[in-house]
């Protein structure tokens, strides 16, 4: 397994969009998490290896879209209608087997270094 590597973070105004990318090798279940200063790491979205099943945290439903291209070994997180409260470091994580609960960070085996997303009001 190769450690995931995130990219695509940056500064955006409220209401704007960003697309994060993450390298993903092997037949892995992939998740996105985020952590804001002073807060615990929280789940954002996840996707099965084949891409047929996706999961979202309630606060992201309808605004964020997770997808993957196994041909490119890449997982994407399209973030639309961004809000200042979306500001955080976003992490990509991989799991060798499908987690019983995708929202639990301890269920993942490999983590990226994170990419900063800042949404200005």
Please explain how this structure is put together:
With 121 residues, the chain is mainly beta. It is built from no helices and eleven strands. The chain has strands at 6-7, 10-13, 18-23, 29-35, 42-47, 54-56, 64-69, 74-79, 88-95, 110-111, 115-120. Strands 2, 4, 5, 6, 9, 10 and 11 form a seven-stranded mixed β-sheet that branches.
Keyphrases for this structure?
single chain, 121 residues, mainly beta, seven-stranded mixed beta sheet, 11 strands, globular
Task: Please specify the SSE layout and strand pairing.
Elements: E1 6-7, E2 10-13, E3 18-23, E4 29-35, E5 42-47, E6 54-56, E7 64-69, E8 74-79, E9 88-95, E10 110-111, E11 115-120
Short description:
This protein has 121 residues and is an all-beta fold.
What's the average pLDDT? 95
Q: What is the 3D form?
A: globular
Could you list the spans in which at least 5 consecutive residues all have pLDDT below 50? none
Count of DSSP strands: 11
Helix content: under 10%
**Distance linking N and C termini:** 39 Å
SSE succession: EEEEEEEEEEE
Q: Radius of gyration, Cα only, in angstroms?
A: 13 Å
- Sheet/helix structural class: mainly beta
Largest sheet: 7 strands, mixed
Strand content: over 45%
Count of alpha/pi helices: 0
């Amino acid at each position: 397994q190769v450690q995931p590597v995130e990219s695509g973070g940056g500064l955006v105004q409220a209401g704007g969009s960003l697309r994060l990318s993450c390298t993903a090798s092997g037949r892995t279940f992939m998740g996105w998490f985020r952590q804001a200063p002073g807060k615990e790491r929280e789940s954002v979205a996840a996707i099965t290896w084949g891409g047929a099943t996706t999961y979202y945290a309630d606060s992201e439903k309808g605004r964020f879209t997770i997808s993957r291209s196994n041909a490119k070994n890449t997982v994407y997180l399209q973030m639309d209608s961004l809000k200042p409260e979306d500001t955080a470091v976003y992490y990509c994580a991989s799991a060798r087997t499908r987690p019983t609960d995708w929202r639990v960070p301890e269920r993942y085996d490999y983590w990226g270094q994170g990419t900063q997303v800042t949404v200005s009001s």
